[in-house]
Amino acid sequence: MNSPTLDPTTPPPPPPENPLLRTSHPLVSDLEQEVLDEYTRLLGNVNTLSCKLADLAASPSSMTLDALRLLERKTATVCTLLKASVYSIVLQQQIFNESEQQQQQQQQEQVLMQQGEENDGRGFGGYEF
């Protein structure tokens, strides 16, 4: 269902007349009438906004396009910085893991060297000859 294109310079058509919106209706209290009046104003504002948005969508202004280009550049910069930060964290973690492995190897070598020094001068089975 296609709706007709609205001219943004003309106000939207008034909503159809609702008998409940009349101030003389006996079934509507004063508070309910105030709420209904606010909803009527809200409907008018939403219709006006809809017309303006339709106009912007139909022919985007150069200011809007320039703002979107600037936003795109800023978003790309943030994305690049985020990728660089993640890469830096991953790289630091790899360096940390490698240094831990080297420390463990050095500790194992030291333990083996100490065991070798304790066994020097001893024969088979740890008995001296």
UniProtKB/TrEMBL annotation:
<dbReference type="GO" id="GO:0051010">
    <property type="term" value="F:microtubule plus-end binding"/>
</dbReference>
<dbReference type="GO" id="GO:0008608">
    <property type="term" value="P:attachment of spindle microtubules to kinetochore"/>
</dbReference>
<dbReference type="GO" id="GO:0005874">
    <property type="term" value="C:microtubule"/>
</dbReference>
<keyword id="KW-0206">Cytoskeleton</keyword>
<feature type="compositionally biased region" description="Low complexity">
    <location>
        <begin position="98"/>
        <end position="116"/>
    </location>
</feature>
<dbReference type="GO" id="GO:0072686">
    <property type="term" value="C:mitotic spindle"/>
</dbReference>
<feature type="region of interest" description="Disordered">
    <location>
        <begin position="98"/>
        <end position="129"/>
    </location>
</feature>
<dbReference type="GO" id="GO:0051301">
    <property type="term" value="P:cell division"/>
</dbReference>
<keyword id="KW-0498">Mitosis</keyword>
<keyword id="KW-0539">Nucleus</keyword>
<keyword id="KW-0493">Microtubule</keyword>
<dbReference type="InterPro" id="IPR013965">
    <property type="entry name" value="DASH_Dad3"/>
</dbReference>
<keyword id="KW-0158">Chromosome</keyword>
<dbReference type="GO" id="GO:0042729">
    <property type="term" value="C:DASH complex"/>
</dbReference>
<protein>
    <recommendedName>
        <fullName>DASH complex subunit DAD3</fullName>
    </recommendedName>
</protein>
<keyword id="KW-0995">Kinetochore</keyword>
<keyword id="KW-0131">Cell cycle</keyword>
<keyword id="KW-0132">Cell division</keyword>
<comment type="similarity">
    <text>Belongs to the DASH complex DAD3 family.</text>
</comment>
<feature type="region of interest" description="Disordered">
    <location>
        <begin position="1"/>
        <end position="23"/>
    </location>
</feature>
<dbReference type="Pfam" id="PF08656">
    <property type="entry name" value="DASH_Dad3"/>
</dbReference>
<keyword id="KW-0963">Cytoplasm</keyword>
<feature type="compositionally biased region" description="Pro residues">
    <location>
        <begin position="9"/>
        <end position="18"/>
    </location>
</feature>
<keyword id="KW-0137">Centromere</keyword>
<keyword id="KW-0159">Chromosome partition</keyword>
